[in-house]
């Protein structure tokens, strides 16, 4: 199982680049960056800077969407990123969350997402893509292959991801029972499309910090989603309060006001938290659930431990898992 870093790009780009260089040197597998253009620094620009600042770590979006980014724009961006990085690009996409909600827009429909993935796949392969009524488009440049990951939580999205994606980014928390159920549904979609078992990689994204207060913002967003599996009464009760208070202007912020609604009891089911040894145990527990990659999304805010400190403290885990893959 691989260990990767998730970035909320709410700080100066130079700080993000510094963390990327550190993660690259320490052996983290990939760097996944949010795409929410009003809340964070612009992701496609940032990924280009990361590509020329790192050597081996993979680079991707977690995630972009079909509406604020036209499929041809996304394909062109990732073809360029793949070329610029020497084949280290991964395209993460879904129906849209804060990038759209912060503009008071609704998420894309699932058929739109499926069409976007199909168009992007053709364009990235250098093929012509149809845009209706006999009109086609084709990239004049394309680089190394780019795997396409779909972020998913609910049953219908999980099944779709299993049918169309090279990988799935689960945003279902970290409790093994939630992850096993999500993986099972992805498998149903994969089998329905007659795809081979190894054709769909499974990644788990969740906030990570030793301070439980620092991850509650991410727990709040997760419990509002349609997480398959047995959800207890406390989670349902808290979700009702969070839904009323959630402010997308504070999405991805460890200082979000709505984070205060999350009781400590929920944190361990939905985020990586606790002493560093405990975080390692939480991550390793997912290896037996069919997970290929764990994405530790480390927030940055005043008065909490800096991201680079956490990257270094978790370095032995990354090294041991890297050695186990060798």
Helix and strand topology:
Blueprint: E1 2-7, H1 13-26, E2 30-33, H2 43-53, E3 58-61, H3 71-85, E4 89-93, H4 98-101, H5 110-124, E5 129-130, E6 136-137, E7 148-152, H6 155-164, E8 167-170, H7 176-192, E9 201-209, H8 216-223, H9 233-245, H10 264-270, E10 272-273, H11 276-284, E11 293-298, H12 307-313, H13 315-325
Parallel strand pairs: 1-2, 1-11, 2-3, 3-4, 4-7, 7-8, 8-9, 9-10, 9-11
Antiparallel strand pairs: 5-6
Helix pairs in contact: 1-2, 1-12, 2-3, 3-5, 6-7, 8-10
Offer a quick outline of the entry.
This protein is α/β, with parallel strands linked by helices and 326 residues long.
Can you describe what's shown?
The chain is α/β, with parallel strands linked by helices and 326 residues long. It has one domain: TIM Barrel (Alpha-Beta Barrel), CATH 3.20.20. The protein contains 13 helices and 11 strands. The strands form 2 sheets. Strands 1-2-3-4-7-8-9-11 form an 8-stranded parallel β-barrel, surrounded by 9 helices. A two-stranded antiparallel sheet has the order 5-6. Helix 1 packs across helix 2. The radius of gyration is 19 Å and the shape is globular. It starts with a strand and ends with a helix.
